[in-house]
Amino acid sequence: MQAAKDFNTRVHWDAYAQVFTLTRNSTLVRVKPGARTAQVNGATLRLPVPLVMRKGRAMVAHDFLPQVFQSGLDQTFAIERKPHPLNPLTAAEIQTVVASIKASGRFKPNLRFSEIALKAPPKDQVWAHALQGTPLQAPRQADFVVLDGRHVFEGTVDIATQTLTRWQAIEGAHGMVLLDDFAAVQKAIENSAAFAQALAKRGIRDVKKVVATPLTVGYFDGKDGLRQEERLLKVVSYLDVGDNNYWAHPIENLVAVVDLEKQQVVKVEDGAVIPVPMKPTPYVNSPGPRPKPYKPLWITEPEGKNYTITGHTLSWRNWQMHFSLNSRTGLTLSTVTYNDNGTKRKVMYEGTLGGMIVPYGDPDVGWYFKAYLDSGEYGMGTLTSPIEGGKDAPMNAVLLDATLADTAGAPMTIPNAMAVFERYAGPEYKHQEMGKPNASAERRELVLRWISTVGNYDYIFDWVFAENGTIGINAGATGIEAVKGVKSRTMQDATAKEDTRYGTLIDHHIVGTTHQHIYNFRLDLDVDGEANSLTEIDNVVLPNTAGGPRTSTMQTVERTVASEQQAAQKFDPAHIRLLSNPGKTNKLGYPVSYQLIPYAGGTHPVAKGANFGPDEWIYNRLRFMDRQIWVTRYHPDERFPEGKYPNRSRKDTGLGLFSADDQSIVNTDNVVWLTTGTTHVARAEEWPIMPTEWVNVLLKPWNFFNETPTLGLLRGER
To answer: pTM of this prediction?
Structure first.
């Protein structure tokens, strides 16, 4: 069975049952030695030549693997007869976009693409296609953003006619950090005499062993001495000592400012010399005792999957949704519906990570500017980390590729960019009446997973669907903490108090600096339609006026939020916030709703807001950090809580701007923005590599149904 490895197939031999199990993405095959048939996802496939054992080795015909895996018995994937209007651009379409720009005369050899993506058709046309199969009226188009040195241009191409229909200069904008900028800053520090001199002060003679990290510079109203019109990055460096973990060896108090147009270091910020921590700190094959390896844990679905993937449309139980990968915000779900007793009901038009920020609280030269807008400044979709089955996702996951454009505008395939899997999630419900049979049902969940690696951190995003209508969004942070080199070895050292003013000593001479991970999710919920309102239900204690021994009662007070600015609020878990459809009621007369829960639990302290003073410039640029719930009137161009071009921005062009006109959100088409996150106070157990820490968002049906939506699970057992 050596050929199985070449065919990317997992093989397991069950000596007790005398059966081989082969798994490859969505297909599971079971075959016994000598048998003339194999079971492919529970269906029987006749084999012209049986599998035989010779000298303890399994031998098969040369065409055995293609025969079983291309048998057509795997029904997980279906052919898309009517392409969904939101299907991402194909490789051929990306090439058409670039060819159209070249043909227009606008193209220059030095242009670099930060985005080529589908221009979404009108929302009503998309819903009509998703619900009734109505043909799309709008032409298929693509939007793009290109950088010409420091200048940013965006435009649109009509794919069918292969013509450039829009080309617009974006004044005052700084584009994203692109992948080739990583190589540019490395080359710049290696060619800088001033940087080499600063390294020499620290005993570092070989600049080739210095690893540069390209960091955005933020905005400080000129107080940082940087010119706003220049395209700059700051470079914080680490020393490669050969332990495959350069993050453990920060070169402290040394920052190189690189001009990306000049491709050179234009300034070196050199502070007090702190010795580079040199202790080898590998996280792979680290020294010390080895735990016993896990015994195999096989998750199999011998009769096939409970879901079907048709093009980019995923159907599971009562749920149906479209999925794609965006180069900036990653995994995007759209036209999410729930089949309620034969009626396909709207739940969400589009859901995605809107944006996120990782701000640090240390004022030192190498830290004060660190407030990374990972998606808006770097493009988290472009930085997608391929998922490894059995480790990054369970063995029963189906792994899906994605196609994006690189900086030259060429299509690139990201293998295993997304994972889909079903999992057991405990009892859906249970009740035991004395003397009667147990009444319980199993809960299953469908998970769509995407992972992005941004420098030292790896972010895992799970969209979790339950059959009872609940949608969870789980964000996990793992990877390696950004650490600071210090003089202190332990907390008993005289320097320890000052060294740990802004963080935690997590290794000898290493401080994990206190910071935050703040996520914002853009959720275009259409709860049974587009005419929705934000409803508040507050729990109150009121006097008992009905008589009896009680002096107080528990009651609720309900009200409708009138406008966008009133909707921007801190989340209090003691209260209930709903997006409701006043025009639709359940059988009891309540407006159908979904509950909005920005923080449904987590393993780090919740980030109730950004930990900055009110006079910090960051508040002028980014208001989304300090409110956990925002609701704005739908506008197709309002997509990012930090604004479209946040790199070095001076003012808020995101949610602060979107809500400035304070439009009515009563019975209108609204977008919900949920902000969640953690304040990351480091601990020793997170070094040298950090176990995944989760934060959870929840969308829960609230009188959306007439009864328990999963009663059918129990009825089916009777």
So the answer is: 0.96
